[in-house]
Amino acid sequence: MKLSALISLGLVALPELASAAGGFGATCKSKDGTWMRTRQDMNLCMGRDGERIVRKDKGNLFVPSNTETSCAGVSMRGTALRLTCRIFSEKGNREEHRLVDLDYIVGNQDGYMWCSGHRSAPH
């Protein structure tokens, strides 16, 4: 199920969204209609492919690095995660804002967020 559908089912970004650990809190509706509040470590879901931010199992996108792209300062904009990323490349080092559509990263599976085979934990 896409995040846009999750939002219509009550997915709610919580204040801890901006944590350095890349945690993302949400409330999702399960198949039986109950609401579940869970939290997903987005380091398990997102990573880098060169300068691109991609869905990646154990990608550690939010782990600070002095040699690889890493991101922090997250906020929501619709179904997109707005990131401030430090980019390290042959073109030079720079800071950029990126939008990542969470429809391609997480889904709702019976009230739990899932990504790359990782289920969110109750919160």
Automatic annotation (TrEMBL):
Taxonomic superkingdom: Eukaryota
Pfam families membership: CVNH
Keywords: Signal
Residues in Cyanovirin-N domain copies: 25-112
InterPro entries: Cyanovirin-N, Cyanovirin-N_sf
Keyword Amino-acid biosynthesis set for record: no
Secretion signal span: 1-20
Protein name: Cyanovirin-N domain-containing protein
Source organism (scientific name): Cladorrhinum samala
